[in-house]
């Protein structure tokens, strides 16, 4: 006998898993070319947030591979990181998280253990290791780790909650109740929620119900309802208890209570199929068969794939005499679950009532094949045999049912004995049989039924002969099959005390120890088996597997080599050796071993699946798909192979094909959370964000501790602009895994998008605390600081991000933008240049460097950069507009500027600044009518554009349309009452209209706004002269001359001496 390890690519696990399959969000750059009054304006590209990579070479590479879903590659990089720094707790923890996510629970445990050895004073590694042990079925080990975590941090409510669930699972309901009570004691207000709708009171109620504390369970469900009156699950579960009470006490009062609770659950959640099902069950107990059928119909409308609903509806139809309808429902239940023995039994009964006795016998026989301890199926088959005249067959079936405890069958036998005498009397001798004291006679268990039956038979044998080693050994095997590892170990220990030279028992004990994670103990037992029987190839094979689990890869290969030497046809040994080679990165060597395994056993589906994994790791996705196809040809119900094939198709960009495979995996295994998760990723890749959200939600429904699913659902919600939903999901991911740095980072992005910049900064800061090497968090925090005006703080964060990741082009870009705002234009150019070196296709970096060069007077350099930006992105309207500004303002090339503005307008017909600036260029060419048309278009797009009104007024003044000009200046002043130029130019228009008093009033206002406005003084002097107030005019001209106006100085010489 040998254990077999099957590789897997399973994305995402439960608690405490920091696995992220979405890139850090980035802000899209926007070029703004806002115009200034009386002239052209410089354009500025707004800052961007960038994705990023880790500073450390291997961690950075690993993160990049993680983003590309190359999880095995990420692990390889972490392996290298650990080789360099074997005391890096974070690296062990990250690798453990990846292994857990890939389904390698034992590997995760080893890494968490190493992290604990390095630093035993943190509760979370114990907590996470406990979860991994739980995944392996090592509930006691999980509880031990939860105990350690609580010894370090006694108020860790999550640990109490999960320890309660673990205790619940092993039947320690009192312990579970105590732990749920502790959760409530620590947090009496919030009450820790494992599911969105289920509080700690809810789970404590379930544990109390299981322990038989009915009143306590009802009290807890009632408390859960008091806290959350919309908790339909609590109403539903309280109804189940009330229904049980009705059955026990035969009191319709309790049935009425149950129905009232189910009614409430349905009012709250009309899609709660369980509540309809349970209400139908209660009505069935009340013999309200029509009412029951109505409820079962509702339940099936909600979820048509639940076999139990069809089963119960079939019972109700049968009770109403609709046997054919009942048969149809039982048949549907069997289609959904071909192993549903009860459905076969009930269909057999309905067929018997329809006088189809052969059909009845066939169905009851199928029920017995599925469950050989099904007493009623034996009794019912006996009934149909009797109807066909097969009294002997009927009596045999009733005898078996009687042995299984069916008193009704025993009564039938007694009745037949009275009728038929000795024949039935002889058949009614129900005996167990005694074991000979001669051990060599062996045990005959052929008629003992299922595994539990075998255990009972063997126990009786041991009672008769307490020194029978084989009986202990065989009972240990049976217990092992039932996952009763402790019981199996005890039996194997007894067997070896009696017979210490039994190689097979050492082998089996080694298997049990391997299952519970005692790899050293397993290796010891396999070694003892080999010592007794050096030719036991299976013992070498399984010792190799134990060494593999202990990371002794070379030792594992040596054992597999020996197993192959003993038995060159041992396919499992080649298969397992391939797994070790794949783990060591020898993908080709692994493939060679899988090939050999398949040469020996061409029907070994696991080997095809594993070879597919090795090809996947080698980036041979087509080859991997071919192997998964072969695996599925052999085993069409191999859900893991469908999942893995989907991942390979995803890598090739065939997302629709991948979704089809994930669907098939889910069809086979409806609770396959990882397949739902992967389907969500594929939908996201196809742009079906809503569909992705729905699938992530299903993954979470199956595994409410799936942090990665909450995280990715949050990212999807953020894509749709649902920032509050994104924040809620990232918060849930953080609640599950408080060390999920990227969840903090992406929650910060959602808060930023919601303009909660302080909240975003707090989240980025937390991400940095968890992972001080997270360049993205520094970069994003810098971006948020820049929006709060803390430009120096932003630059400090960008600088830190660059120290961690010197190849992060977007962060150089953002730092350049921040420096530009502080007036450090040369520093900005340096940063933009660095961004361009890293990413020569970054058109925005060229555009903003062009703006900075223009600011420093490097006109040709600015034009060259804008031209390069246009070459990279010919649809970049901002680059055309900004190049036009330089041509217009610096070179006087108005025609060239107009051509650029026109191109910008062709690309973006709503680009108001381009119309405005083109109007300015046309004004310079004295094409005032065309200029007015452009200013008018700019105003149409942006009715609050004061400079456009102002410059349109100037153009109208040039055409001597003074009243219209005055109207435009007035509109500019209405929009911007501090625009001194508009008062000045309106004064000029009034002067030209001979309205000298109005002119003086406007100049007064211009001077009030800007007391150093020389032209306003000069122009006011001119108006005063026209009114004959020469003294006042001379005072204004003298003031203008003092302020540097040469024309005013000449007027003083001419008129004021």
Keywords:
1057 residues; Serine Threonine Protein Phosphatase 5, Tetratricopeptide repeat; two-stranded antiparallel sheet; 2 strands
Brief characterization of the structure:
The chain is an all-alpha fold. A two-stranded antiparallel sheet has the order 1-2.
Can you characterise this structure?
The protein has 1057 residues and is an all-alpha fold. Among the domains are: 705-806, Tetratricopeptide repeat domain (Serine Threonine Protein Phosphatase 5, Tetratricopeptide repeat, Alpha Horseshoe), CATH 1.25.40; 880-941, Tetratricopeptide repeat domain (Serine Threonine Protein Phosphatase 5, Tetratricopeptide repeat). Helix content is 74%, strand content 0%. Strands 1-2 form a two-stranded antiparallel sheet. The termini are far apart.
């Amino acid at each position: 006998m040998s254990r077999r390890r099957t590789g897997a690519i399973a994305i995402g696990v439960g608690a405490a898993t920091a696995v992220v399959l979405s890139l850090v969000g980035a802000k899209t750059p926007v070029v703004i070319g806002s115009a200034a009054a009386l002239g052209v304006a410089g354009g500025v590209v707004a800052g961007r947030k960038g994705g990023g990579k880790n500073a450390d070479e291997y961690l950075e590479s690993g993160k990049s591979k993680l983003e590309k879903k190359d999880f095995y590659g990420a692990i390889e990089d972490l392996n290298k990181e650990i080789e360099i720094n074997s005391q890096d707790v974070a690296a062990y923890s990250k690798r453990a998280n990846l292994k857990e996510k890939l389904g390698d629970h034992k590997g995760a445990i080893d890494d968490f253990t190493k992290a604990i050895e390095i630093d035993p004073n943190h509760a979370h590694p114990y907590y996470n290791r406990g979860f991994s042990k739980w995944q392996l079925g090592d509930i006691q080990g999980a509880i031990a780790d939860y105990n350690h975590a609580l010894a370090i941090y006694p108020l860790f409510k999550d640990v109490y909650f999960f320890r309660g669930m673990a205790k619940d699972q092993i039947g320690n309901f009192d312990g579970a109740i105590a732990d749920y009570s502790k959760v409530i004691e620590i947090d009496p207000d919030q009450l820790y929620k494992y599911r969105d709708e289920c509080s700690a009171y809810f789970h404590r109620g379930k544990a109390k119900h299981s322990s038989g504390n009915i009143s306590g369970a009802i009290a807890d469900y009632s408390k859960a309802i008091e806290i959350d009156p919309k908790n339909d699950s609590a109403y539903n579960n309280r109804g189940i208890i009330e229904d049980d009470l009705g059955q026990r006490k035969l009191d319709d009062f309790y049935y009425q209570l149950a129905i009232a609770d189910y009614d409430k659950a349905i009012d709250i959640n009309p899609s709660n199929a369980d509540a309809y099902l349970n209400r139908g069950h209660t009505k069935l107990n009340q013999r309200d068969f029509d009412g029951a059928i109505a409820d079962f119909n509702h339940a099936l409308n909600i979820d048509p794939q639940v076999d139990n609903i069809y089963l119960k509806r079939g019972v109700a139809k049968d009770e109403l005499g609709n046997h054919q309808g009942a048969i149809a429902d039982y048949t549907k239940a069997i289609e959904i679950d071909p192993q549903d023995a009860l459905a076969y039994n009930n269909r057999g009964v309905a067929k018997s009532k329809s006088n189809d006795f052969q059909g009845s016998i066939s169905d009851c026989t199928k029920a017995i094949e599925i469950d050989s301890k099904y007493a009623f199926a034996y009794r019912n088959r006996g009934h149909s045999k009797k109807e066909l005249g097969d009294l002997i067959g009927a009596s045999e079936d009733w005898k078996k049912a009687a042995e299984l405890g069916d008193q009704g069958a025993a009564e039938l036998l007694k009745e037949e004995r009275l009728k038929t005498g000795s024949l039935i009397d002889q058949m009614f001798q129900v005996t167990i049989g005694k074991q000979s004291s001669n051990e060599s006679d062996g045990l005959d268990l052929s008629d003992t039924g299922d595994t539990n039956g075998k255990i009972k038979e063997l126990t009786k044998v041991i009672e008769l002969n307490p020194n029978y080693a084989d009986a202990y050994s065989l009972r240990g095997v049976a217990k092992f099959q039932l996952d009763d590892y402790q019981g199996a170990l005890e039996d194997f220990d007894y067997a070896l005390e009696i017979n210490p030279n039994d190689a097979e028992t050492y082998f089996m004990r080694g298997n049990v120890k391997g299952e519970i994670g005692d790899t050293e103990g397993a290796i010891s037992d396999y070694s003892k088996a080999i010592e007794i029987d050096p030719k036991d190839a299976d013992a070498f094979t399984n010792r190799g597997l134990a060494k593999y689990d202990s990371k002794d890869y070379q030792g594992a290969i040596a054992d597999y080599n020996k197993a192959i030497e003993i038995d060159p046809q041992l396919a499992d040994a080649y298969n397992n050796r391939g797994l070790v080679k794949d783990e060591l990165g020898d993908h080709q060597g692994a493939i060679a071993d899988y090939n050999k395994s398949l040469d020996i056993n061409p029907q070994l589906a696991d080997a095809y699946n594993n070879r597919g994994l090795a090809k996947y790791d080698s980036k041979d996705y087509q080859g991997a798909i071919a192997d998964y196809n072969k695996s599925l040809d052999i085993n069409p119900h191999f859900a893991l192979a469908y999942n893995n094939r989907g991942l390979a198709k995803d890598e090739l960009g065939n997302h629709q094909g991948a979704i089809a495979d994930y669907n098939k995996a889910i069809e086979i295994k409806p609770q396959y959370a990882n397949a739902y998760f992967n389907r969500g990723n594929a939908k996201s890749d196809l742009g079906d964000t809503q569909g992705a959200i729905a699938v992530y939600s299903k993954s979470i429904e199956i595994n409410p501790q799936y942090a990665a699913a909450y995280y990715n659902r949050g990212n999807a919600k953020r894509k749709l602009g649902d920032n509050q939903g994104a924040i809620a999901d990232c918060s849930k991911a953080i609640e599950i895994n408080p060390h999920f740095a990227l969840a903090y980072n992406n929650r910060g992005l959602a808060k930023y998008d919601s303009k909660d910049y302080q909240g975003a900064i707090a989240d980025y800061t937390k991400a940095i605390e968890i992972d001080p090497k997270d360049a993205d968090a520094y970069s994003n925090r810098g971006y948020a600081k820049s929006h709060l005006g803390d430009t120096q703080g932003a630059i400090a964060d960008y600088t830190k991000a660059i120290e961690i990741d010197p190849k992060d082009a977007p962060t150089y870009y953002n730092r350049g933008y921040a420096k530009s705002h502080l007036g450090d234009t040369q520093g900005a150019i340096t940063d933009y240049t660095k961004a361009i070196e890293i990413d020569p296709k970054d058109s925005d970096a060229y555009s903003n460097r062009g703006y900075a060069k223009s600011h420093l007077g490097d006109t040709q350099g600015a034009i060259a950069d804008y031209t390069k930006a246009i070459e990279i992105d010919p649809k970049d309207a901002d680059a055309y507009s900004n190049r036009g500004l330089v041509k217009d303002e610096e070179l006087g090339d108005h025609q060239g500027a107009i051509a650029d503005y026109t191109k910008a307008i062709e690309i973006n017909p709503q680009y108001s600044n381009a119309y405005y600036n083109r109007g300015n260029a046309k004004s310079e060419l004295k094409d005032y009518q065309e200029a007015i048309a452009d200013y008018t278009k700019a105003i149409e797009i942006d009715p609050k554009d004061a400079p456009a009104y102002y410059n349109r007024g100037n153009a109208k003044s040039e055409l001597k349309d003074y009243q219209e000009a005055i109207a435009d200046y007035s509109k500019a002043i209405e929009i911007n009452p501090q625009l001194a130029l508009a008062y000045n130019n309106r004064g000029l228009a009034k002067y030209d209209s001979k309205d000298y008093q109005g002119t003086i009033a406007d100049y007064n206002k211009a001077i009030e706004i800007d007391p150093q406005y020389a032209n306003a003084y000069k122009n006011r002097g001119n108006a005063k002269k026209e009114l004959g107030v020469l003294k006042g005019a001379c005072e204004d001209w003298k003031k203008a001359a003092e302020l540097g106006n040469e024309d005013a100085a000449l007027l003083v010489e001419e008129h004021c001496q």
